[in-house]
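> @MW can you paste both from yesterday?
MW: sure, first one:
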Amino acid sequence: MVTDSFRSVVLHDELCKGCTNCVKRCPTEAIRVRDGKAHIIKSRCIDCGECIRACPERAKTAIVDPLSAMEDFDYTIALPAPALYGQFSGLKDASLVLEGLRRMGFDQAFEVAAAAERVSALIAEYLRRPDIPRPAISSACPAIVRLISLRFPSLVSHVIPIYSPMQYAALWAKRLAARETGLPAERIGAFFISPCPAKVRAVRHSVTSRNDVDGVFSIRDVYPKLLPHVMGLIKRPPEERIRCAGAAGIGWCSAGGEASAVDNPHFVAADGIDGSIRLLEDIEDGRLPDDVEFVELGACSGGCVGGVLTVESPFVAHSRVVSLMRAAREAQLPAVPIPDPPAEAFWDSPLSANTEVLQLDSDIGKAIAKRRELERIEASLYGMDCGACGAPTCRALAEDIVRGFATEDLCIYRIKERLQALIEAQAVAAEPETL
């Protein structure tokens, strides 16, 4: 595991045109354009992938592990995110993807959807506890967890401290593999096949001391190698198919799927970073009804099927997942249960707020003075939040000025104002003198 300085989303300077699209889309104001190039403030980045989605020049990409990382282990396990199923046309059973992954080169494939069903049951049990802060907020999306830590510190105690399906699946799969093969855990590699960059950082910098995921591959990298195997298996007779997860686990990849699997009637769900932020603001301001017990949030629109590392349209993928869920419900063959789910499921330490990132100064007196100066500068600006200065808002520019990273001369309206004054002065100077 590396330190929290790691970020999955990276910027390629040679491709950046300084257009400010990413500046306007970043939910944590982690991007600035300076000297014609975007810059990512690493301490504020939550790896949601919005800048990747917004960049017309494809100057932002996600760091993922290469498929060659499998060679470092004696036994490899694929952990397919349920969103992977939505990438394939005509798929009627998830077992085809599992078998395709084995034919692709993995020794075993373990359904994260099956782990999601177990995690759903654990969340349902957690929600019955009378002593928890309400509403309880899902911790499945690592980008949302980091967003709360950074922008909504008052809500960190509301985040459910239970392993994500990815982590739970890795723990479960590696224990079973160690028992079957006799290999030590360090020689067994568990690789998550991810729809988003946030999962990469969740592995490199886990919120818990335990991390059983050894690498993260993107769906984009796996899909072209997996596709011919899955397509070659689609005509297999139904009696040869084996599935472990049912509709509830598969549905986790679409918006509202987790809440449906948890089966708590008192829930609210939001997908997409903007909708999630609005809902978090409502929670923080006490605007949700008192009977709401559970909140599902996802950084990607439509759920994980909308992740930036997928290949298929999220709308098409969602439709395919719904069809796959229907087929799972109607299947005559029952799901094959996976034995011995791990007893460990809860984080070993609570989520902490990352308030230091937003502090203007470690000295309280200096911080107060800088806050006053920030408000003075913001009031002197135009409030247009146009982004032309390279900062997302006038307040963000004022903060940058106070921190010493920018000057008021970056404001295009201030430049226009001075230019107009210069033109008027030149016009007066050019007028002929009259007696």
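MW: second:
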Amino acid sequence: MSISLPPAQGPSAAGGEVVDTVAVARAGLKEGPGGFWRDVFRRLRRNPTAWIGAAIVLAFVLVSILAPLLAPYPETALPGARNITPTYIPGPGELPEFPLGLDRFGGDVLSKLIWGARASLLVGVISTALGLVGGMLLGLVAGTFGGWVDTVIMRVVDIILSVPNLLLAVSIAAILGQTPFAVMIAIGASQVPIFARLLRASMLQQRSSDYVLSAQTLGLGRGRITMSHVLPNAIGPVIVQGTLTLATAVIDAAALSFLGLGGGRPETAEWGRMLTYAQNELAIAPWLAFLPGICIAVTALGFTLFGEALREAMDPRTRAR
């Protein structure tokens, strides 16, 4: 954040001009982050990648919210069970009332894909929120106090980071039990170290900025400087990482459900669980694996595209061009 220097207050001993330090400090502290965010939004509007990613994410969110209105059948309904035989499952277009065909249990695939979007959105958002809150708390404490507090927190974070994310999530979910809430906690816990390290690093970078020195010159306390000035300016990279992490959260949720850790009945409308039971039907009904796999890939792509566009818009190296 730049600080505009006020007019000189008088000559120095060397015959030059001096700057009123308090005036500089007040000028720096009055400059808020509004201009920065306006510039970010302007750059996003000019980025085609941001539009594509935002369109995919918006479509995913709308489908999830409007699932009761869009889905032809209820979430647990099995309207096509009478059409299933051990060697035959109707595919897309074969039955007019089931546009994308049926699954092994007689469920409408289109309805399950729509309801599965809601399940994936719920798990992705809640797990990312848990990881974001936990990571920000650790990063905030480490970046504010420093010293031995920072050392202890970062060493614990390093230990957690030494375990692959998915393996850690699988371990936590297996301990907590096979429930959707356990999946949310498992994915969120595996994301905590990422947010903690990112916020700490961003805060350490901000602490050496001019506006922090200005605040110290005015006599502001460490807590006020951190919460009013350092944290708001350091949170940008964390927001970007949150959008990118939503993509991995959707994939991780599908992976845990695929491994049987998501809970629920076999006919549960969830993309990962649909993949689990589709592997036994690949020979006669390959679309049961392709359709939820495409949904997972497109959703993750949308969050990734938007997150990368947001990262570029907030990157000072690209904003300076």
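> thanks! Strands lie at 10-11, 17-18.
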